[in-house]
Amino acid sequence: EDGGVLSSQATPLKDDGVGIILPEGSTVSACVELKEALLTRVRLLDVPNSALDMFIDELGGPTAVAEMTGRSHRIIRKENGKIVHEQRGKGESDVERVNVTECRQFQDGKKLVSIISDAASVGISLHAKRGGNNERRRVHLTVELPWSADKAVQQLGRSHRSNQSSAPMYKLIVTELGGEKRFCSAVAKRLQSLGALTRGDRRAATGQDLQEFNVQTAMGTGALKKVFASIDEGLLFLPGTDTAKSCMQDMQEGLEMIGLGPGRKENEAGNVSRFLSRLLGLPVGVQNMVFNYFMDTLSHDIGVAEKEGNYSDAIRDLYGGDTEVSLEKSEEFYTDPITSATCSVHTLKVDKGITWADALARLRQAQSSNDLQEDSQVFKGGFYESKNMVPGRNATGWMMAIQKSNSPGEYQTWRPNTGASTTILMQDDLKFKYSKREEVVAEKLWTRVYEESKSWDEKNDKGARVLTIRILSGSLIPIWDQIHEVVQRASARGGLGVTASQANMKVVRMSAEGQHFIGLRLPLAVIHSVKKQLDNHANILAGKVLKVTMDPSTLAAVPAYIANHYLQAGTYKGKAMVGMHSSEVIMHFFGGNVTLGLKHMGETITHVAPKGKNGEFVSPTSFLVPVPVKIGDTSVKGAKVETVTALNEKMLKKAKTPAKTMLSFFTTKTKDISETEGGEGGASNSQSSGSQGGPQKRGMGSFFSPQSSQKSSSSSDSKKARTQSSAVAAIKANTKKGAFFGGGGGKAASSSGARSSSAAEVDLTADDSE
Length: 770
Prior knowledge:
alpha+beta
């Protein structure tokens, strides 16, 4: 009525283009009325609170619920029923303090309900702490599954921690929407790859089995391809599906709507993750219809595989059926020194190929079986040639494909060099990648590939007809970790012939010559490494060697000790893990070398510390120290101890005569070096050269005397021998006195050699002969 102009504010004098001029400061009454009516309708709207505020309100309000989120403001209901907007703490900067306070109130039992979000899922402990004020068992409800399984594990870890009086009970809240299974599937798959306990049988004690949510598997991919092929054709429902709740036309229109119809890309045919994500864009009814059709197909395939014995994530059969397998040899690989349980390696030769006569007979049999069926359809099968060249081989590939009965669009395949394939080929892939050929043409080329593939190298050609399989069987559980460590290390390096599937340590089963072999399939690249690892493990169990790992704090002090005692010897204390126990270790430094003294069964074992692979003075990784075995010592199992044999006069004279080397120049006939180092601190003041009449001069002429003119070793060998002898003597001397100076964490003394008066005292005395 005012010419269509709506304005509730004063406007300046202007022409709006219609011809109506509004005076300055004028108000349009119609706009004011519309504004009031709109505000009245808004006030009457029953707008729900946010999910977080609704939970807090329904569970008793802020006085009963501990909120640990990143919110600085929230909407709460007062005692009088009025909804108000309030600030948490003093603002955004105070949110962390408020979360800590709320956590403390929940742990003390003042609030029995807590709500946490992703913003507060780190650094908060909500478990039933032993000895705390609130030891009630926790019930952890996950209302919204995160996209990342890492975050899911982080959130679940808030209520499941060490020192708890009881384990929590987890409840995952999932709706019936098919698209939401996409989140469960992603989390379940990631949890399995992380090695989490997702099963309720041998992989976990009890609890929710997330395996049922993980549809991103090989069987899930095969089921999805079946579903696409069935819906595209629109003729036949797949076995095991509920046809009463499915409408083929609605499912066809639904897949077209989300871009997964017949014109979909090739890489989308088996992409389960993308399929589940696209389902979220469909109406609820169609979404659930397509998802249920997919799940029914997957469940049916799993049931068939279980009946046929092909569905087991524990033991997998290798090269069964008509594959020719022969046993080459079996040899003992490992013997447990305590239980005497053994493990053996069986080398099997596998010929995977299939001759032309066998392939043609199988094709004729499939044709006859199809013709005998009452509802027989047109037989689909024959010999096919690939449209592209096989990588690494300047030739096309050949195969025989036969459509599976009661499974439209699925083909079982055979190749002349690899035999039957375990992978199902879909009809779309068959048309796109292969061309059908007549039997007359296929016979000649099939036979040629069969004969040539026998000599192909299995290491460099995956299509080799003859393979060598090595299976480690026997008592594997006690040494499983040892084998797994070697295989994982080889897989991480890459290029060592260890694939990702082999690194998963799957148990396989094979049959040859009437015998059954069950065990681990070991790649050739790790056979020797595994053997070495197991030999070391056996020596540790038998007590022949000690596994030593130096403490990081001790290793950190080694460079300073080396620098201060390059020319003057020094002895320090340190720490190391010897086996499974922490032990004190004595370190003797001189000339850039480190000699260790390890206490074992009342004795001190001396060992030159190995250097690290990256140039460290002492290896930061574990190393093995041999244990000396005395005659009659029965504590070392399996040790071979030689008995004392009688010495004749010639052998005795040879044993007493010192070697005629340069080292003989430095020998002394007056005292043994161990006697000269008996003083306090392990110091020796005696001369290291001379005769019975007194010390000799070390002039140049003495080097050309008849005694020293014999063939000698290098000066470096002499120095090493003298250094080790001095170190052993110093360690033994300090061991007898029970007084070792210094500490693993103590500071190295100055190079001047002065004693430190602190508690971490260091012995800087050294043998003068050094």
